[in-house]
Amino acid sequence: MDGIKSAARSMATDALFERRPYLKMAFANPFNLSLVGGGLAAALLTANPFLALATLGVEAIWLLHAPDSARLRHILWDPRFEKLKQALDAQERSRRMAGLSEDARARVEGLVARQEEIRRLAAQNPSFAGDLLRGELVKTDHLVDAFLEMALTCARYESYLQNVDGAQIAREKKRYEQAIADAGDDQAQSSIAKRNLAVVGKRLDKLAEIRRYLTVARGQLDLIENSFQLIADQIVTMQSPQELSGQLDELLDGVEAVRETSRETEQLLAGIDKTM
Question: Which of 84, 101, 117, 145 is 20 to 30 A off residue 33, Cα-Cα?
């Protein structure tokens, strides 16, 4: 069921943002429809076929050229697509945040609010060209998504640690080490103790790797939050989008490093689970 919903959401996103129906929006909007309808109604009331032909001719010119005009797209339709995109993103984010604690959800929502502040302040900076600025601000979307992804992974690992008694596992490790020492020449006793010790050792390795990831990921979460705050403080005085780009690229590099750590952790944990 989740797969079907995900596929439907993906198709809707593609339809709206990858193959934007500019022609449809150029025609099916209240302003255009009122002008066409008014022109045809006036032609009908005055029995003037030339007025009807002129109305249809102007409409044909509009539909021929308006959808291909980058300027008109930027002014008239892109803001509407952006609002739709933000609404879909917010809906998807809310769905994914359902598994987070109240504090974690508040952190994600706070980061989104800071992102909106950055966008607003950047738009007010006359040194930023519109097209170039939009290209840089897309990176903040990636960072918000990465923040949520890391928060979800942290929540999953923290939940696992809460259900595991690491101290008890460490005591078991010492017990099996002692059992091996006490076994002496008893091969059967020594063998089973060594096998138990190997399993317990892998469990401890698993806990250590999870704690390592959490330390790195929590630091990166803090860094993204602090950096968004710093950018919001600085952006009104930035002289070019390149200043913003450098900070965002550095954060994205850090995110990718954490993702690599996550992939390595998952691979290790999967390997340990298969051998246990």
Answer: 84
